[in-house]
Amino acid sequence: MGKFSDNIVFWSAFIAWIIAQFLKGIFAFYKYRKMDFRRFVGAGGMPSSHSAFVSALATGVGLNDGWASTTTALAIVFALVVMYDAAGVRLAASKQAATLNKIVDELFDEGEFHHEHLKELLGHTPVEVIVGSLLGIVISYWMIG
What is the extent of the structural domain holding 59? Predict the structure, then answer.
């Protein structure tokens, strides 16, 4: 039995996640023309690091265990659920948070109500999910393929 540190499937997924997070920070810098170090570790933005992570994982399992294996099917279904959630439920939650923050700001603009702003950057657009997914697949093929 090998060591976990030798698990190339895990490391390909982890490297895909790290690269996606790094790219997210770089893209945010170019978009806003200022450095926001939270973008290097936060959720939301281009590309989706969640999608990169689970796509690299599913691709790695497929390459390692065979495309017809039960574990590959499980990994693919898991990846699809995560990506659907990132572009669906979490994107909707982001939009709701932005709306609620705006309502609270407008209602209590005189400072009588102190509130914490809800986190608005939670989900991903479909393009961010697709780019993250493609990044994960490419990284996994590069490391394992």
Answer: 4-88+123-143
Residue 19 covered by a domain: yes
Number of domains forming the structure of the chain: 1
Q: Is residue 137 situated within a structural domain?
A: yes
Among 135, 137, 122, 127, CA closest to 85: 122
Band (pLDDT 50/70/90 cuts) for residue 53 is: very high
Long-range contacts of 43-47 (CB under 8 A, 24+ apart): 43/90, 43/119, 43/121, 43/122, 43/123, 44/94, 44/121, 44/122, 44/123, 44/124, 45/121, 45/124, 45/128, 46/127, 46/128, 46/131, 47/20, 47/23, 47/128, 47/131, 47/132, 47/135
pLDDT on residue 106: 66
Token reading at 48: 């989706």
